[in-house]
Specification:
- It is a single chain.
- By secondary structure, the chain is mainly α.
- It has one domain.
- It is 60% helix and 0% strand.
- It contains six helices and no strands.
- α1 packs across α3 and α4 crosses α6.
- The protein starts with a helix and ends in an 8-residue tail after the last helix.
Length: 137
């Protein structure tokens, strides 16, 4: 699971890094404001400039929202208390099925594959709309 978590977090970092690259390519003033903007604000500004209207309630943009939420959970960590009841007392500690926090539920191979495809699609769309030479990768 740890490797999957690392992949998800680095995907989010890649999205932000690409947003910063793209911003510096299409907006002369990007370097003056990018440090004061959240990644969500950066994406909204870039999409507006490029004439895109992303639907964060549907793929592929929904996956971007999930990745950025995951990134923010680690970048701005908070204590979370979980409760779980066990029905029997003859379970050993190493056999307990501990409750999962939301980010742990994201750490599946199928989610990583889905998010990777969606991140590639979104970055390719942004790159294409910006009319830049080559591809984003």
């Amino acid at each position: 699971m740890r490797n999957l978590l690392q992949l998800l977090v680095f995907m989010a970092f890649t999205i932000e890094a690409y947003a910063n690259f793209l911003g510096s390519e299409i907006l002369n003033y990007w370097n003056h404001l990018e440090r004061d903007l959240s990644i969500n604000a950066k994406l909204f500004i870039l999409c507006d400039k490029l004439g895109l209207d992303p639907d964060f309630g549907k793929r592929p943009w929904q996956s971007i929202k999930s990745l950025l939420t995951l990134r923010n959970q680690f970048g701005h960590g908070k204590v979370k208390f979980l409760q779980h009841e066990y029905m029997t007392s003859d379970i050993h500690d190493d056999e307990l099925d501990f409750p999962e926090v939301p980010w742990e539920k994201e750490c599946t191979l199928s989610n990583v594959q889905l998010y990777l495809k969606d991140a590639e699609d979104v970055l390719t769309e942004l790159h294409s709309k910006a009319d830049l030479i080559g591809g984003p990768f």
